[in-house]
Amino acid sequence: MHRCESCMNMYDEKSGACPVCEYRQSMRTGAEGVPAPSEVKKRKKLFHTEKTIKRIIAAFLVFLAVCSGLLFVYNAFEPPEEVYNVNSEHQGYAKRESVIKKIKKGKDIDTIIIENKSLMKNNSDQSAKIIQSVNISKYSVGNIVMFGKYPQRLIKDKELIEELNKLKKDWKSLGYYSGEDLNGDGFGDPGTMKSKDYTKYADVSYKGDKYRAVIFTDYRPFCSSGVCDSGNSNQESNEYVANTVYWFRYEPLEWRVLDPSEGLVVCRDIIDAQPFSNLCYEDMSGNYYNDEELSVYACDYETSSIRSWLHTDFYETAFTDSEKSQIAVSKLENKSYSKKYSKYDGSETEDLVFLLSYSDICSKLYGFNTESGAADSARRRRGTDYAVCQGLFVDPNDGYSHWWLRSPGNGSRRACRVWSDGVAHSVCRVDYTYFGVCPAFRFVPEYELYGSN
Q1: What are the angstrom distances between the C-alpha of 176 and each of 49, 213, 244, 250?
Q2: Whose CA is closest to 113, among 305, 267, 312?
Q3: pTM confidence score
Q4: 3-state secondary structure of 315
Q5: Which band of pLDDT confidence, cut at 50, 70 and 90, is reported for residue 10?
Q6: How many CB atoms lie within 10 A of CB 158?
Q7: Sign of torsion, CA 181 400 314 115?
Q8: Checking DSSP bridges between strand 194-195 and strand 177-178, what pairing results, if any?
Q9: φ/ψ of residue 430, rounded to 5
Q10: What percent helix, strand, coil does the chain show, rounded to 5?
Q11: Closest by alpha carbon to 192, among 183, 201, 200?
């Protein structure tokens, strides 16, 4: 006797096969090898089950592909928020150890504002016949008013250039930054930036006009921690080359009226190219700060390089004492462009000249499109020759450029800007040097400037 390995039945080996197994096989296939009805039903059920499982798997794979595509698009337009270590000593809002940092020139912004108020008081005692004031309330939104002067147009007259080159010049450094590129990405490494003397200027007067000479021995890098190189700068592509003296004429600044009742105006052109923050230091968690103590986020406007630059280099260069007396002190809100990134909100400041905010450039009252993503012609700006010489990016298709806003963006080293096409963005590194500056300020109401006169 032999035991069947399939059914464990004992059978005679002489019969050749297990009779029980042969019987079961006949029940499944039928007498002529055709499947029995019960087996057909079972096979159909199994077939449909397998088909359904395959459809579910295919649908799931399609779902994953769509999600991946959407995630790619989202990252392309709004990169993920930078890492924030909730267990670090910088938990919550970044500390502000001092309200306003001291400026290299020896004055802080509070001192400049006090001096400006003193000028207002002195001028309030003088006759309006001596000081020509601007009564901005008589203008409409979108009107242009001329006020102050700044180097703008490139001098191309060879004879004039020869005469200007003969003049004695007192060269001064613009203090532009550069750093080291240890990781080889071309943008330099945070914390390596230093102020250097590779770009200098000299102001002179000639036949009643004022001119500025500019020369640079190295090319200004794309970001303040970058390496000086022609391939890492816009200056050469803008047709400005190293070791050449360029002359620019001081010309009246044109301001676009945003709100006559408030006296608010913004420069019609991009008048210079400056980073939002020259300083950028990174901690172990991937957060960025504008001080070595890692106490203030790099996107903070109150302590930013651009705010200091506006109140020193620009303010002192562009306006006479009588013009300064007509500039009001503005109380500014410096919150992030979105409540989602409220941890980057800055403190309120009092400023004489400033950058517009994200909400300002979406204000219908000021003549802008309310949609930040719209290509608004009212937000588009071109740079002056002087700004282009400083390394401003210029769109080769239409000649427009990007310009800064003061609102913090969606990361610790990101601030908002207006793109060259008039669209507002929130993902811009604060240490980029090739973005433009469009200053804004408020005029003192005429009645306040001259009292009862």
Answers
A1: 71, 16, 17, 21
A2: 312
A3: 0.74
A4: helix
A5: low
A6: 8
A7: negative
A8: antiparallel
A9: -70, -20
A10: 30, 25, 50
A11: 183
